[in-house]
């Protein structure tokens, strides 16, 4: 689990800070105040970055700093039991947070798709995938085993952009049988040179696990895709 990875790193970093602090008094004269201040700043940045990447949501930073100061003031290292307790508590919190977020995203996604299905030009397939063709393209259409080259932008239903080949100024190329189910199905609905919008229910996207920091669990997604080129499998 990604969270546990960051938690482990954070705990190790905390131990490193304790270790550095225990020796700094003895060898403080080895470094200038500027050097100590500099590394202190970067340690703070590093710890804050790991906390942000772990996606805890809103935290009480006053309590965080109080606990940090308490731990720094201790003369003895934390025990294995203590560290296990910390890890268990944080993991339990993150699991509950993910479950609540997933339930909320699922409800909001279903409401969005229910309203979206009646919009002009939107077609709903038996799988639950919704789509709207902006430009039909040619008669050449991809099969599930083909590779496509596309330009696309992906957003959440609130408009938050999470990925874009346009921003990278480079089209993406991938085989259709190695992507999320919505892309496998959706890219067969428009011809080469065409443009399509895919409205993706969570079960055809990244499901309950989500993907990365922006795509949360059970997120409904929107992809606007231009099919530049289709590369058929040579049989």
Write structural notes for this entry.
The protein has helices spanning 2-24, 33-53, 61-73, 80-116, 165-168, 181-186; strands spanning 123-124, 130-135, 147-156, 161-164, 172-175, 195-200, 221-231. The chain is an alpha+beta fold and 235 residues long. Strands 1, 2, 3, 4, 5, 6 and 7 form a seven-stranded antiparallel sheet that branches. α1 (2-24) packs antiparallel against α2 (33-53) and α1 runs antiparallel to α4. It is elongated and about 75 Å long. The chain starts with a helix and ends with a strand.
Number of helices: 6
Strand segment tally: 7
Percentage of residues in DSSP E strands: 15-25%
For the record, what CATH class of the largest domain applies?
Alpha Beta
Helix-and-strand structural type:
alpha+beta
**pLDDT averaged over residues:** 87
Q: Radius of gyration, rounded?
A: 24 Å
**What spatial form do the alpha-carbon principal axes imply?**
elongated
Tally of structural domains: 2
Main sheet?
7 strands, antiparallel
End-to-end gap:
40 Å
Residue stretches low in confidence (pLDDT < 50, at least 5 long) are: 1-6, 15-20, 22-26
Into which percent range does the helicity of residues fall? Answer: 40-55%
What's the order of the H and E elements?
Answer: HHHHEEEEHEHEE
**What is the CATH topology descriptor of the largest domain?**
Chitinase A, domain 3
CATH architecture of the largest domain: Roll
